[in-house]
Amino acid sequence: MQNRNITFRLPEDLVREAKVYAAQHDTTMNALVRQLLEEKVSAEVRARAAAERFLELAEKGPYSTVDPGTIRREELYERW
Question: Is the pTM of this model over 0.70?
Answer without folding.
Answer: no
